[in-house]
Automatic annotation (TrEMBL), chain A:
It comes from Streptomyces afghaniensis 772. Gene3D superfamilies: Aromatic compound dioxygenase. Residues 43-191 form the Intradiol ring-cleavage dioxygenases domain. PANTHER family: DIOXYGENASE, PUTATIVE (AFU_ORTHOLOGUE AFUA_2G02910)-RELATED (PTHR33711), PROTOCATECHUATE 3,4-DIOXYGENASE ALPHA CHAIN (PTHR33711:SF9). This is Putative protocatechuate 3,4-dioxygenase alpha chain. Keywords: Dioxygenase, Oxidoreductase. Pfam families: Dioxygenase_C (PF00775). It comes from the Bacteria. Belongs to the intradiol ring-cleavage dioxygenase family. GO terms for molecular function: ferric iron binding; protocatechuate 3,4-dioxygenase activity.
From TrEMBL, chain B:
InterPro entries: Intradiol_dOase_C, Intradiol_dOase_core, Intradiol_RC_Dioxygenase, PCDO_beta_N, Protocat_dOase_b. This is Putative protocatechuate 3,4-dioxygenase beta chain. Keywords: Dioxygenase, Oxidoreductase. The keyword Oxidoreductase applies. It comes from Streptomyces afghaniensis 772.
Length: 201, 257
């Protein structure tokens, strides 16, 4: 029965998850999905990496969503990530000024993704991080992880999540600095170097 | 050796028996599929082997994951929720209206949030270049829709009944007709991507994707209800499908859970 009786709390049970499948490419990705940072913003960082499976092979059909705070640690409330053109129905891209904090990126044929966003500020007890949600064919329930940026070891050491992890696993959540403002973050779904994934309760 | 439907049927039965045993041994009702559900072969190399690390959201109300991205009128167009009006002509197929409410685990409506759908056309073909099924494309149907929920959490789409389609996982593998849904809640923890099915589809027992939800009641929650009140006279058949987002949100903290 799929009419939920909200007067009976015991009947309000979750709708199960399903895989995003292989054929979302004409539906979910949108122009500017990876360009989250307002144009020319000085706190822009580039994040990129590969998504790989248990055989070490890249996933050409993974979908990643990023969600993060602005550089002051405030959570964005602006809409407009996927602005539309009412004339053609197409995507206009972002307006280049507002920061929505959210982006969506499909891996390319090599299993690679990138995004440009703003360096997040700290909130609450955590070191600054960007929340990541991973979808793919074969993944029956999406996976959450986090991207922490390297630099301030004291802050990372004090983070409630990172401090509870063994060194090898902890490192899977910390991006690797490359060129100035560019960070590498690979997502390994299974096997050696498997990324730490999260559940929320 | 070609993988047959019989092979998959046996694996599905074994997974059901294993779930029943877990229940009999006092295990919890499993509302979600297991990520390592092997009858769906694509899962085999794509699920983590390590258990997820649990984050207790009640310990920190400032978690990024307790808020959700926002969407608004700029992100949709007027005809996004009518998949039959997005081209010059009418798509082929049986017109349907699909409507329901988006709720959280407390039964509260999720208001003003983005609902995205995508589907095959009435012949069972996606408008996606990598699709290999040789059923006809429909020049008047893309199969993509978006809407924002209203103040009661309601969404509404007009589309055509999608066809079932073969998918080559095993010999004679067919997916039951379905519409993909992507949903946001008030917290990023509530993110959901799933599929809505139609009542009494004869393909249900053979499909390892719907069967990955091994709990009978949970699986039923993926199946829309025919609703004559939603059928539009001289126009479309109506289906009702309420969606309940899993995962904690900020109200859990306010109530001290």
């Amino acid at each position: 029965m799929t009419k939920i009786d909200t007067s009976r709390p015991e009947s309000v049970l979750p709708t199960p998850s399903h895989t995003v499948g292989p054929f979302y490419g004409h539906a979910l990705p949108f122009r500017g999905g990876e360009d989250i940072a307002p144009l020319g913003h000085p706190d822009t960082v580039t994040l990129h990496g590969y998504v790989t499976d248990g055989a070490g092979d890249p996933l050409p059909d993974a979908l990643i969503e990023l969600w993060g705070a602005d550089p002051d640690g405030n959570l964005p409330t602006a809409d407009g990530s996927m602005r539309r053109d009412p004339a053609s129905g197409g995507f206009l891209g972002r307006n280049g000024v507002e920061f929505t904090g959210w982006g969506r990126i499909q891996t390319d044929a090599n299993g690679h993704w990138y995004a440009r966003t703003l360096r997040p500020g700290a909130r609450g007890r955590s070191a600054p991080y960007i929340s990541v949600c991973v979808f793919a064919r074969g993944l029956l329930v999406h996976l959450y992880t986090r991207i922490y940026l390297p630099g301030d070891d004291a802050v990372l050491t004090a983070d409630p999540l990172l401090s509870g992890l063994e060194d090898g696993r902890r490192d899977t959540l910390i991006a690797v600095a490359e060129a100035a403002g560019t960070y590498r973050f690979d997502i390994r779904l299974q096997g050696e170097g498997e990324t730490v994934f999260l559940e929320f309760q | 050796m070609t993988l047959t439907q019989h092979d998959i049927d046996q694996e599905i039965a074994a997974e059901r028996a294993a779930y029943e045993k877990r229940l009999a041994d006092g295990g919890p009702v499993e509302h979600q599929p297991r990520r390592d559900y092997a009858p769906y072969r694509s899962s085999v190399l794509r699920h983590p082997k390590q258990p997820p690390v649990t984050i207790d959201v009640s310990k920190d109300p400032e978690l990024v994951e307790l808020a959700s991205p926002a969407f608004g009128e700029r992100d949709i167009t007027e005809i996004d929720n009518d998949l039959t009006r997005q081209h010059d002509g009418e798509p082929i197929g049986e017109r349907i209206t699909v409507s329901g409410r988006l709720l959280d685990r407390d039964g509260r409506p999720v208001r003003g949030q983005l609902v995205e759908i995508w589907q095959a056309n009435s012949a069972g073909r996606y408008a996606h270049q990598r699709e290999q099924h040789d059923a006809p494309l429909d020049p008047n149907f893309t199969g993509v829709g978006r809407t924002l929920t209203d103040d009661e959490g309601r969404y509404h789409f007009t589309t055509v009944q999608p066809g079932p389609y073969p998918w080559r996982q095993h010999l004679n593998a067919w997916r039951p007709a379905h519409i993909h849904f992507s949903l946001f809640g008030t917290a990023f923890t509530q993110r959901l991507v799933t599929q809505m099915y139609f009542p009494s589809d004869p393909l249900f027992p053979y499909d390892p994707i719907i069967q990955s939800v091994t709990d009978d009641a949970a699986r039923q929650r993926l199946v829309a209800t025919y609703d004559h009140g939603l059928s539009v006279p001289e126009f479309s058949m109506g289906y009702h499908w309420d969606i309940v987002l899993d995962g904690p949100n900020a109200t859990w903290i306010e109530e001290g859970r």
